Amino acid sequence: MLLSHLSIFLFAACGTSCTAPEPHTHDHKEDQTPANQQTYIKPLPCNAIIPAPSEQITSQRFQQFVNDFVVKKDLSGAFSLISSNYINHHPGAEDGPDAAWELLSPIWPNNTFQLRRTLFKGNFGWLNYHSSTAGEIIDKFRWENGCIVEHWDDGEVWPTAVVHEEL
Length: 167
Known about the structure:
Elements: H1 55-71, H2 75-79, E1 82-88, H3 97-104, E2 113-121, E3 124-131, E4 135-144, E5 147-152
Parallel strand pairs: 1-5
Antiparallel strand pairs: 2-3, 3-4, 4-5
C-alpha cells in the first residue's frame, strides 16, 4: 500500500461529476496532535453487517473510509472498516489488516495526500489520490457485508467504462 506504489488500501471516482467524501464523526475522540507527530491506535477489525447492507449504504461506508484514509489521515478510523480476513493482492504484501497496519502506521503521518476522485459500483470502490512519497495511486477495494475484504493497487487503472458488469 504506499511506498513506491505500495498503497495497501483504497479507491477512486468519476469522469466530470466527482464528489468529495462526506465528513464522518467517530466514536473515539479526535487526535489533536499535529499530523507529523500523530500516533495511531489500531482498531478492532470491521464487524460484518448481516444482512448485507445495500449498495448505497456500502458506498457511504466507502466514502467514510476515503475521508478517514486520505482526507483526515485518520488511519484508525479507516482501518475500522477493514475485515479481519482482508486480502491484499499486491505482490509481496501479506494478507490481513495487521500486516497493512504495520506497514502504514509508521509512515502515514509524514505523508501528504491529494484526493483526485472516487467511484463506487456494485461492491467495488476505487480511490485515486496523490501521495507525497509514492506519487499517483489507484486503489481498488472489494466490500462484503459492509467491510473491506480485498485490495488491489499494483498496476490498477481508473475504470473508464463503468457499464461493464465485471467491474
